[in-house]
Write a structure and sequence with these properties.
single chain, 117 residues, alpha+beta, four-stranded antiparallel beta sheet, two-stranded antiparallel sheet, 3 helices, 35% strand, elongated
Length: 117
């Protein structure tokens, strides 16, 4: 099993989830609202003649737990759909290995549930 995590701009969350579902059939996702910045280091706003700097920007963290075979297609779908056309700030995606994934309700391992589906 692989955990795929992606930080994306909030406006792209639904687009990314739809793209992952369409390309892989995977529908399980956790969405966590977050703030942060990358290389762009935030943005500067002008309001009523005063300049304000927002160091942290609103983002969303998407977490998918998928089979090893689904990991690369999920990453590709995220990368393609998260791209906004802006110069920077579209986010980042990474993977990590996962062990012992068990459904709380049934007590079954995720691998057993995926095979039976």
């Amino acid at each position: 099993m692989v955990k795929v995590e992606a930080v994306v701009i909030r406006e792209r969350v639904e687009t990314v989830i739809d793209a992952v579902e369409q390309s892989t059939g995977h529908v399980g996702v956790t969405v966590i609202e977050a703030i942060g910045h990358g290389r762009q280091r935030g943005v500067t706003h002008e309001y009523r003649g005063r300049i304000f700097e927002s160091r942290f920007l609103p983002k969303s963290l998407l977490v998918f737990v998928v089979t090893d075979e689904q990991a690369d297609p999920v990453v590709a779908a995220i990368v393609d759909s998260a791209r906004s056309g802006n110069e920077s700030g579209d986010g980042i995606v990474w993977t990590s290995p996962v062990e012992h994934v068990t459904h709380n309700r049934t007590g079954l391992k995720l691998e057993e549930v995926e095979v039976g589906a």
